[in-house]
């Protein structure tokens, strides 16, 4: 049987369409995916993301351990609460998972939040590389996680938090977190909008969800989460990157800390080799100029020749057009075609993100 | 409970058929089908004059989630695709039996209509699926 989050009964009560996702039964939408998408762009929406897995890493060697395991460098985290996005790579430079790591204490306390479908694999990977490091790795299945996103998200969330928590939450800079009484509030998210991701004891989740609902925050499912993150140009693990395709060909070069050169993180040698290769594929955005909807795995063509593959595609409610992320041969120029049901449909190559903070960032 | 007009015929693949009384029929997808698909964002309707066999995939409905083939319930010749769906694909969500119709065709044999499901039989198909 699939796993259920502490909010499962709430989803059912709200009429959610529940679907299997990464071993969990999760809400796809509560009626209209597009209305939920628009609520996040224009007001505030919330997502039950309790299926994602927090992992606490502590101990004298926690920093050294994560500097070995992650392609980004946790030594950049100098103030408590600061967050960093990183890939965790395998030896061939493929992605074991992508995650956010937060610095929780000056004494090398870290919290990772990893994907639902990869959590077991990640834990095995972390455990298998701990030899020689004095670290404790603790999976936090006792925590639930609610993301509140949108232009009104922070203000509305603050009205739902105890006073002292609300004040420190409202003071948070982007990509920072604060903690109080077992609650962990981070100004991070996966929609291209401002907002919070709140980790809290599982038995508090229904209460917070209910007060957010009363405050007018719209419940949103995984469907809207996917169209929002696609518009925001954010990668989805297993689709835009994975164990066979690393950060250099997935638009994630910005997350690799090449300096200092002495830091020998797992996958570094493979990345160095690919970095110098003229064959290295580019990761681009596409805007469909013809009619139809681009879907993952469709073929990208240039003058009738196969030049790449769609990694994520769909309909953008904000642009009212189809958009996509694609991995293509280098040097394509400005246009291409996407093969949709056997027919080439014209598209423009653009630089993601498509939408950020409610604003369209590409020429229509 | 989804809306199932008693005067229509249905298929196992969730199309409905209305006898227009002038030798043509109108085809769309059921209320149950549009609800299962979610927000519909693009529709490809068949060209006029195209000859189709029963169960031919002849239109495509794309929701935010996925593309779905729509099958012709009976053999015949397409006489009209619903051009308005190019601008308002969501009419299938809001009015599956009205403005959201997908195409009209002239059946090769009108008698075939009798072999399609009635509302009660279709309701059973839906119940068996869930």
Automatic annotation (TrEMBL), chain A:
Gene3D superfamilies associated with the record:
Aminomethyltransferase beta-barrel domains, Aminomethyltransferase fragment, Probable tRNA modification gtpase trme, domain 1
User: Which InterPro entries does the protein's record reference?
Assistant: GcvT (IPR006223), GcvT/YgfZ/DmdA (IPR028896), GcvT/YgfZ_C (IPR029043), GcvT_bac (IPR022903), GcvT_C (IPR013977), GCVT_N (IPR006222), TrmE/GcvT-like (IPR027266)
Where do the GCVT N-terminal domain residues begin and end? 7-259
What is the top-level taxon of the source organism? Bacteria
Keyword DNA damage attributed: no
Locate the Aminomethyltransferase C-terminal domain: which residues? 281-355
Q: Quick one: which residues bind substrate?
A: 197
Signal peptide (UniProt feature, chain positions): none
The terms under GO molecular function for this entry are: aminomethyltransferase activity; transaminase activity
* A GO-annotated cellular component: glycine cleavage complex
Give the UniProt keywords, A-Z: Aminotransferase, Transferase
Family (UniProt): Belongs to the GcvT family.
Function (record text):
The glycine cleavage system catalyzes the degradation of glycine.
NCBIfam families annotated for this entry?
gcvT, PRK00389.1
Q: Subunit structure, briefly?
A: The glycine cleavage system is composed of four proteins: P, T, L and H.
Q: What is this protein called?
A: Aminomethyltransferase
Native source species: Allochromatium vinosum (strain ATCC 17899 / DSM 180 / NBRC 103801 / NCIMB 10441 / D)
Ranked from the top, the taxonomy reads: Bacteria, Pseudomonadati, Pseudomonadota, Gammaproteobacteria, Chromatiales
Automatic annotation (TrEMBL), chain B:
| Domain annotation Lipoyl-binding: ranges | 24-106
Location of N6-lipoyllysine modifications: 65
Listed InterPro entries:
2-oxoA_DH_lipoyl-BS (IPR003016), Biotin_lipoyl (IPR000089), GCV_H (IPR002930), GCV_H/Fam206 (IPR033753), GCV_H_sub (IPR017453), Single_hybrid_motif (IPR011053)
GO cellular component, alphabetical, reads:
cytosol; glycine cleavage complex
The record's keywords, sorted A to Z, are: Lipoyl
In its UniProt record, which GO terms are filed under biological process? glycine decarboxylation via glycine cleavage system; protein lipoylation
Q: Does the keyword Transport apply?
A: no
Question: What binding details are noted for the cofactor?
Answer: Binds 1 lipoyl cofactor covalently.
Q: Which cofactor does it need?
A: (R)-lipoate
The record's listing under HAMAP family reads: GcvH
Q: What's the family?
A: Belongs to the GcvH family.
The record's function comment reads: The glycine cleavage system catalyzes the degradation of glycine. The H protein shuttles the methylamine group of glycine from the P protein to the T protein.
Q: What is this protein called?
A: Glycine cleavage system H protein
Q: What is the lineage of its organism?
A: Bacteria, Pseudomonadati, Pseudomonadota, Gammaproteobacteria, Chromatiales
């Amino acid at each position: 049987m699939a796993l259920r989050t502490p909010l499962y009964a709430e989803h059912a009560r709200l009429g959610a369409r529940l679907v299997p996702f990464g071993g969990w039964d999760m809400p796809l939408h509560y009626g209209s995916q597009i209305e939920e998408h628009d609520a996040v762009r224009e007001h505030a929406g919330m997502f039950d993301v309790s299926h994602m897995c927090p992992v606490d890493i502590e101990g004298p060697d926690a920093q050294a351990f994560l500097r070995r395991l992650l392609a980004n460098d946790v030594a950049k985290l100098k103030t408590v609460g600061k967050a960093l996005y990183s890939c965790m790579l395998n030896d061939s430079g493929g992605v074991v998972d992508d995650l956010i790591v937060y610095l929780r204490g000056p004494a090398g306390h870290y919290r990772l939040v990893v994907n639902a479908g990869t959590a077991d694999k990640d834990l095995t990977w972390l455990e298998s590389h701990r030899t020689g490091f004095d670290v404790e790795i603790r999976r936090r299945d006792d925590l639930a996680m609610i993301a509140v996103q949108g232009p009104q998200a922070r203000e509305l969330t603050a009205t739902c938090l105890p006073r002292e928590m609300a004040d420190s939450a409202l003071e948070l800079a982007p990509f920072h977190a604060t903690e109080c009484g077992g609650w962990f509030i981070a100004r991070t998210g996966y929609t291209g909008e401002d907002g919070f991701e709140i980790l809290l004891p599982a038995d508090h989740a229904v209460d917070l969800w209910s007060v957010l609902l009363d405050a007018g925050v719209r419940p949103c499912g995984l469907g809207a989460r996917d169209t929002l993150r696609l518009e925001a140009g954010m990668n989805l693990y297993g689709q835009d990157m994975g164990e066979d395709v690393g950060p250099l060909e997935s638009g994630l070069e910005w997350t690799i800390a090449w300096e200092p050169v002495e830091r020998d993180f797992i996958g570094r040698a493979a990345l160095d080799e690919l970095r110098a290769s003229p064959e290295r594929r580019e990761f681009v955005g596409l805007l469909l100029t013809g009619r139809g909807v681009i879907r993952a795995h469709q073929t990208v063509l240039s003058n009738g020749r196969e030049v790449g593959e769609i990694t994520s595609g769909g309909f953008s409610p904000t642009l009212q057009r189809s958009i996509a992320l694609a991995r293509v041969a280098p040097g394509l120029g400005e246009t291409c075609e996407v093969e949709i049901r056997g027919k080439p449909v014209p598209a423009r190559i653009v630089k993601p993100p498509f939408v950020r903070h409610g604003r369209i960032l590409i020429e229509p | 409970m989804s809306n199932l007009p008693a005067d229509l015929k249905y298929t196992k693949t969730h199309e409905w058929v209305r006898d227009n009384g002038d030798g043509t029929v109108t085809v769309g997808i059921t209320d149950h089908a549009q609800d299962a698909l979610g927000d519909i964002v693009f529709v490809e309707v068949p060209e006029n004059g195209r000859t189709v066999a029963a169960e031919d995939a002849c239109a495509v409905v794309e929701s935010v989630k996925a593309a779905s083939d729509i099958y012709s319930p009976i053999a015949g010749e397409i006489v009209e695709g619903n051009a308005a769906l190019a601008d308002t694909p969501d009419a299938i969500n809001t009015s599956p039996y009205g403005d959201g119709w997908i195409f009209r065709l002239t059946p090769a044999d009108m008698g075939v209509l009798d072999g399609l499901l009635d509302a009660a039989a279709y309701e059973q198909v839906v119940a068996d699926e869930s």
